[in-house]
């Protein structure tokens, strides 16, 4: 899934567009994130009751959301034995802070890369292209 930066040069950009692009999330992962956010704490059954997808698909998406730090997992012990996991999401303020920090880091890295652009670097890239296609 590709997001050209120029697509964000619009007043119609939503926070969900930014979240999807920043973390390369699928529409399915956004739906699961919103389900957890509004039903928290939520278990897999609660989520699959709302989003009728395979448990394995939901679980993979949750693991991805945990990995990027948007969702948290808590293990609870059941009275009759065993355990289950409950999932909760960052608060809106925590998510906004996390996104702003990420966007600021990305912006700083882009500024640095732009500052390093020179005619010499353009020529170096051209020579790589020429070598690639010459036999």
Shape descriptor: elongated
Low-confidence runs: none
The average pLDDT score comes to: 90
Radius of gyration from CA coordinates: 21 Å
Largest sheet: 2 strands, antiparallel
Q: How big a fraction of the residues is strand?
A: 5-15%
Provide the helix percentage.
55-70%
Q: What is the straight-line distance between the termini? A: 33 Å
**Structural class, from helix and strand content?**
mainly alpha
Describe the structure.
- With 135 residues, this protein is mainly alpha-helical.
- It contains 6 helices and 2 strands.
- A two-stranded antiparallel ribbon has the order 1-2.
Outline of this structure?
This protein is mostly helical and 135 residues long.
What is the fold's blueprint, element by element?
Elements lengths: L14 H9 L3 H13 L4 H7 L4 H13 L3 E7 L5 E7 L2 H24 L3 H15 L2
Antiparallel strand pairs: 1-2
Helix pairs in contact: 2-4
Spell out the key features of this protein.
135 residues, mainly alpha, Arc Repressor Mutant, subunit A, two-stranded antiparallel sheet, 2 strands, 10% strand, elongated
């Amino acid at each position: 899934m590709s997001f050209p930066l120029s697509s964000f040069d619009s007043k119609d950009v939503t926070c969900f567009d930014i979240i999807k692009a920043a973390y390369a999330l699928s529409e399915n992962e956004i739906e699961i994130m919103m389900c957890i956010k509004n039903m928290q704490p939520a278990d897999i059954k609660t989520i699959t009751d709302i989003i009728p997808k395979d448990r394995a698909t939901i679980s993979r998406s949750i693991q991805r959301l945990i990995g990027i730090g948007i969702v948290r997992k808590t293990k609870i012990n059941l009275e009759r034995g065993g355990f289950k996991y409950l999932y909760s999401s960052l608060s809106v303020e925590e998510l906004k802070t996390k996104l702003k920090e990420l966007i600021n880091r990305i912006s700083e890295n882009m500024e640095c890369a732009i500052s390093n652009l020179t005619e010499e670097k353009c020529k170096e890239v051209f020579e790589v292209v020429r070598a690639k296609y010459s036999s």
